[in-house]
Amino acid sequence: GALKNRGVQVDLLDVSLASDGAIWSGAEKLERMAARAQSAAAEITEHCNDFHAAIGVGGGTGGEIILAAIKGLPSAYPKILITTLAFDPRPALADSFITIIPTLCDIEGLNTHLRQVFENAAASIAGLVSANKVASTGRRNVAITTLGATGRAGAEIARWLDITGYETTVFHANGYGGAAFARFVDEGHADGVIDMNIHELGRINLAGAHVAMPTRFSAAKNIPTVALPGALNFIGLGTIDTISPSHLTRPHYRHTNQFTHVKLTENEMNAQATAWAEKLNAHKAPCTVILPMGGFSHEDRPGGAIEDVKLREITADILTKNARAYSLEIRPDHINSNEIAHAA
Q1: Most CB within 10 Å of its CB: which of 198, 201, 328, 342?
Q2: What string of DSSP letters covers 151-197?
Q3: C-beta neighbour count of 174 within 10 angstroms
Q4: For residues 329 and 133, what is the distance between their CA atoms, to the nearest angstrom?
């Protein structure tokens, strides 16, 4: 009603399970949720070009169904979920460009507070559907991965590419941003890649929170790529009070209040470098690996909390022995130096 009052045409799609009071087992409910999401996704996808945005309203169950139904739409297509936020949204939002509007209270009958939430949401959506499409700059785009541990180099790379005529799109490779990076490349938005921070390889293979990202290290195999071992030398874990005693016996530091970085062992680095080389050897387009032997992250430096020359040597040895589909440049500089940024 609030949208119609603002002159916005609305087409309704009911995604509820319509249980009619039936109590299903957990497995049966999940099966019905998946089926409902799949059928809704097919209908929404078929008609999305006829509408300006996809908007959903739901609580815990409904919210999950809606997220599954709309996340497959094109990444830049406007998608909004109004929800009680009865779940962790990060896995669904990592690569899907969905805007969440929390209701705070549950959606069980209208009240003054909920009416205001809907009015606010309708005002936002009415503005959204009238927004102009942003024109392309016409410049070739380079996708870059980085983290705070390699942030200085990431900023310098982006600055240098801008000066030389490229557009850059930078992704935060923290276990979630890598999924967005992979989708961006899979959808054909990147003309080249500088995969400077491959920290998510450790989250996937060793430990740390992350979402599924099956094409994280294969999406760019058909476009020119420069790869660096940014943050390969540590595991990204949570708050210090959640770290296991075995990890706390290793060199580590608190990156922020929420994140603790723990240095890899030599055996772990051996396995990680081997896995990375295997991914790199799947490249079909030109691929260059730059190894900055002065350090792989901001605390891998003289006096740094997790400095370890041996880990860098292990990486260099494995990358040298296994190079087939990529060329290798070994440099004495630190990854955050201007020399490495300009080389990349």
Answers
A1: 198
A2: HHHHHHHHHHHHHTT-EEEEEETTTTHHHHHHHHHHTT--SEEEEEE
A3: 22
A4: 41
Q: Among candidates 230, 226, 243, 155, which has minimal Cα distance to 198?
A: 230
d(CA 276, CA 268): 12
What pLDDT score does 282 carry? Answer: 98
Residue 308's pLDDT is 97
Per the CB < 8 A criterion, the answer to whether 14 and 57 are in contact is no
Q: How long, in residues, is the chain?
A: 344
CA distance 225 to 142: 9
Dist. CA 154–CA 158, nearest whole Å:
6
Beta bridge partners of 101: 82
Alpha carbons 7 and 63: distance in angstroms, whole number: 26
Distance CA 172, CA 155 (A): 12
Which pLDDT belongs to residue 17? 87
By the 8 A CB rule, do 188 and 158 touch?
A: no
Cβ–Cβ under 8 Å, residues 15 and 66: yes
What is the tens place of the pLDDT at every residue in 15-52? 988 877 788 888 999 999 999 999 999 999 988 888 88
- Say how far apart CA 247 and CA 161 lie, in whole Å: 39
Facing residues of 57 across strands?
Answer: 82
Contact in structure between 196 and 150 (CB atoms under 8 Å): yes
Q: Residue 120 above 80 pLDDT?
A: yes
3-state helix, strand, coil in the chain (%, to 5): 40, 20, 45
Mention every residue, 6+ apart, whose C-beta is less than 8 A from residue 24: 32
Instruction: Using the structure block, give the residue that is written with the tokens 């927004």.
Output: 131
Banded model confidence at residue 299, pLDDT cuts 50, 70, 90: very high
Judge contact between 187 and 138, C-beta under 8 A: no
Q: Would you state the pLDDT for residue 301? A: 96
Residue written as token pair 């299903």: 24
Task: Give the Cα separation of 330 and 43 in Å (integer).
Answer: 52
pTM to 2 decimal places: 0.86
